[in-house]
Amino acid sequence: MKKLRIATRKSKLALWQTEHVAQRIRDHHPDVEVTLVPLSTRGDEVLDRSLAEIGGKGLFLKELERAILDGEADIAVHSLKDVPAEPSEDFDLAAFLPRADWRDWWITRDGATPEDLPPGSRVGTASLRRQSQLLARFPHLEVVTVRGNVQTRLAKLDSGEVDALILAAAGLQRLEIDREHTLPLEPPTFLPSAGQGVIVVQCRAGESRTLEMLQSLNCRDTFDIMCAERAVVAELGGDCRMPLAAFARLDGDRILLEARLASPDGGEVLDARVEGDRSEAENLGRKAARSLLEQGGTRILSQI
Ligand SMILES: NCc1[nH]cc(CCC(=O)O)c1CC(=O)O
């Protein structure tokens, strides 16, 4: 019997995602014995500062990648939006699972919409992308940094520390957290992060047997739209700490890509929309990024 060890973060969401991948692998390859290797990462441990402050691309990945390089694990499972967009020399992304709900959700105690909340109400998020889009449309609100796992954040809403939260729908759905007062945040007001809602499997670069085995988990449609979204981020040299959104959809074989770069206070919002054949996915992403830069994105980025 072949063995496959999967490195995973220890949060409930990470364990759910990894168990989900493990089950898919067992379904496709009954001859493989799949086990989990749970690890802590710096992104999980440092909770009193924002991700932008503790910095470093791939904060949630490093420990899992180290485990693969040291031979403690064979593959790792990640939320794609936490994976830096520049291609890595040491690792390959072997499978992109079908995209789940890509939206952000607005969550309150009583069902208030952003318009309903009185001036100065506190909205918890640690994401500059969520902050800038929220303030662009609802400048009367105040954003406070809230980190930690989904349960920790919801507890801060329930205790009154914040009046609203913005969280990824996919995370809440995977944890089967069924809150009453949730509202989807959607385009054109709200665009998701590149990669939001997509689980990805990583392995050591060029490991052909592993790549082949994981091919059966890969969703081609998701892969193509992710190429477009991630090319936007890569071209801007960014990561999830940037006030940058990218959202691609397929219409037949055409990709529609929207990208948005905004100043953290929401005062300036730049939008790019491009469209083209799916075989051009990466080019579309670069084109959208260049359009953002030409519209004034260079200045926004220099101020972050
Ligand atoms: N940044 C943390 C993170 N990474 C992936 C998800 C949710 C799952 C996903 O988007 O695939 C979350 C939580 C959140 O943003 O609310």
TrEMBL record:
It comes from Wenzhouxiangella sediminis. It catalyses: 4 porphobilinogen + H2O = hydroxymethylbilane + 4 NH4(+). Its EC number is 2.5.1.61. SUPFAM superfamilies: Periplasmic binding protein-like II (SSF53850), Porphobilinogen deaminase (hydroxymethylbilane synthase), C-terminal domain (SSF54782). Binds 1 dipyrromethane group covalently. Monomer. Belongs to the HMBS family. The porphobilinogen subunits are added to the dipyrromethane group. One of its GO terms (cellular component) is cytoplasm. Residues 227-293 form the Porphobilinogen deaminase C-terminal domain. GO terms for biological process: protoporphyrinogen IX biosynthetic process. It is an enzyme of class 2 (transferase). The modification S-(dipyrrolylmethanemethyl)cysteine is found at residue 240. This is Porphobilinogen deaminase. Its cofactor is dipyrromethane. GO terms for molecular function: hydroxymethylbilane synthase activity. Residues 4-210 form the Porphobilinogen deaminase N-terminal domain.
